[in-house]
Amino acid sequence: MTTDQISTRASRAWLLSAVRAGSALAVGIAVVFVQDHSAVVGLVTALALFGLSAASIFILSAKAGPARGHMLALAAVHAVAAVAAAVLLFTAPEAAPLLTLLIVWAAASGVIELFASKKAAQHEVEGARDWRFVAIVTLAYAGLMALSPVVGLNDPVSLTGLLGAYAAVIGVFLLIGAASSALGAKATRTMSEVQ
User: At 142, phi and psi to the nearest 5?
Assistant: First the structure.
């Protein structure tokens, strides 16, 4: 692979991670400053996170290269989860439906993102390792949510707080990954100009 091809892939991939980081950080920070952590706030948080993620992934999925199909599937999972959160917000704003939504969303999106990261890594797409990390953290979050009734974390305050914490962790990690990819692409372009 030439230096120009590596630079082009890196310059395309960092934007997807940066926009995903921005939406996750916005939701994570908002949860920190909202004092009411009721099921309604949890559903609004889920709606915002899933909706922003779906939009950013769908719009920028072309940046995923060969993993575009998997990323579009991930966007679809986020969109369906956002619609489900909106429906639950008006029909059943309680902890149990919120918990079910979080478990199903995290498990589905974690598996799809894991496949996307594998496909991207096979084609040397910059950001594949970041997607793998997000997939693993999302699957761990699904496991935590599945165990939350056993360990006593199934109340609305815990569910909303843990969703905000998840969003903040993912947002920070994706932001760091986007920054390092962008700087790497810039350094590669600079090296190719010197040669």
Answer: -60, -40
Q: How far is CA 44 from CA 41, 70, 145, 195, in A?
A: 5, 26, 18, 52
Residue 103 burial (CB count, 10 A): 18
Domain boundaries, the chain: 9-190
- The angle subtended at Cα 132 by Cα 128 and Cα 134, nearest 5°, is 115
Over residues 18-33, the pLDDT tens digits come to: 999 999 999 999 999 9
Give the H/E segment covering residue 92: none
Going from the C-alpha of 125 to that of each of 1, 66, 186, the distances in angstroms are 12, 8, 16
| Residue burial 71-82, b: 16+ Cβ < 10 Å; e: rest | bbbbbbbbbebb
Q: In terms of Cα–Cα distance, which of 84, 108, 102, 80 is closest to 156? A: 102
* Average pLDDT over the chain, rounded to an integer: 87
Question: Is pLDDT above 80 for 162?
Answer: yes
Instruction: Name the pLDDT band for 192 (thresholds 50, 70, 90).
Output: low
| DSSP 3-state percent helix, strand, coil across the chain (nearest 5) | 90, 0, 10
pTM of this structure: 0.86
Q: What is the pLDDT at residue 68?
A: 86
Confidence of residue 74 (pLDDT cuts 50, 70, 90): very high
What is the C-alpha to C-alpha distance for residues 191 and 92, in angstroms, rounded to an integer? Answer: 57
